[in-house]
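PROTEIN DESIGN WORKSHEET
SECTION A - STRUCTURE
LENGTH: 278
TOKENS:
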């Protein structure tokens, strides 16, 4: 299988990032580890059964091997006899921990000498308590590490993918909000034109008009940070998982808007019937 220059560069960057994490390993042994890892990556690419792999195919295979820092950590454990060989790891569908996004919890676990699973648990609990605030803190930590690390230490951000995720999510939410407001305005206009009255007070039927702005802001606060994470080079195909979660959330938002418009329509119809009966 022949790789393009950029795809070869992706593999080399990954291998260099792993090597940078293995500075405590003797050079000869480290070189041997990197050669074996390179061979394993080549076999995984061939097993993908893609004649002309694109950049994303290569990144997908590299993600299966996990973040460089985590892979290096397991290599070190293997040397101590506490982990299975790297060759065995790469037979599993996902090599990096399922909960791993960008490797930030592992990074700070190594920095402070803590267990990565404990750091991830703290992050999850923080997310349950603070919601989007925890995701924003996670993003801030990632960008701090990204800016201060060597270029090979972390996978590079793809601006196009990041813009696609973030702008797409914002555009979808804004479109739903604007569409609902337009339909509501046309509904009110039709009522006024038919009855010759001013815009009515619908009371409990008018909850969408009262809460529309708050719902829209809430959707942006929840899903914009998740879209940002999804647009970054996350491991274990979390980008696809986050994309599906965002799509599901926007679908729920659309259903809420439809329910609100239905309630407003019912309120207008009840007023028309009431006026007609009089």
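SECTION B - SEQUENCE
RESIDUE ASSIGNMENT:
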């Amino acid at each position: 299988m022949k790789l393009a220059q950029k795809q070869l560069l992706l593999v080399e960057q990954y291998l260099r990032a792993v090597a940078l994490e293995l500075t405590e390993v003797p050079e000869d042994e480290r070189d041997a580890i990197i050669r074996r890892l390179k061979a394993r990556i080549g076999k995984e690419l061939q097993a993908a059964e893609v004649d002309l792999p694109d950049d994303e195919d290569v990144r997908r295979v590299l993600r299966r091997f996990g973040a460089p820092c985590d892979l290096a950590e397991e290599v070190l454990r293997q040397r101590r006899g506490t982990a299975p060989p790297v060759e065995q790891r790469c037979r599993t569908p996902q090599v990096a921990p399922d909960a791993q996004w960008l490797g930030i919890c592992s990074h700070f676990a190594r920095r402070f000498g803590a267990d990565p699973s404990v750091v991830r648990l703290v992050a999850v609990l923080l997310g349950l308590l603070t919601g989007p605030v925890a995701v924003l803190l996670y993003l801030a930590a990632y960008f701090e590490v990204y800016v201060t690390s060597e270029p090979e230490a972390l996978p590079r951000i793809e601006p196009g993918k990041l813009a696609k995720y973030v702008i797409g999510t914002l555009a979808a939410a804004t479109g739903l909000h604007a569409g609902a407001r337009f339909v509501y305005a046309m509904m009110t206009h039709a009522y006024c034109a038919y009855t010759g009255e001013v815009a009515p007070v619908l009371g409990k039927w008018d909850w969408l008009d009262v809460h529309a702005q708050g719902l829209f802001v809430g959707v942006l606060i929840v899903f914009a940070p998740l879209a940002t994470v999804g647009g970054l080079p996350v491991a274990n195909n979390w980008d696809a998982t986050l994309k599906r979660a965002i799509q599901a959330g926007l679908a729920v938002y659309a259903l809420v808007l439809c329910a609100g418009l239905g309630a407003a329509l019912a309120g207008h119809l009840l007023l028309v019937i009431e006026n007609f009966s009089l």
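SECTION C - NOTES
Residues 169 and 227 are 7 Å apart (CA to CA).
DSSP finds eleven helices and no strands in the chain.
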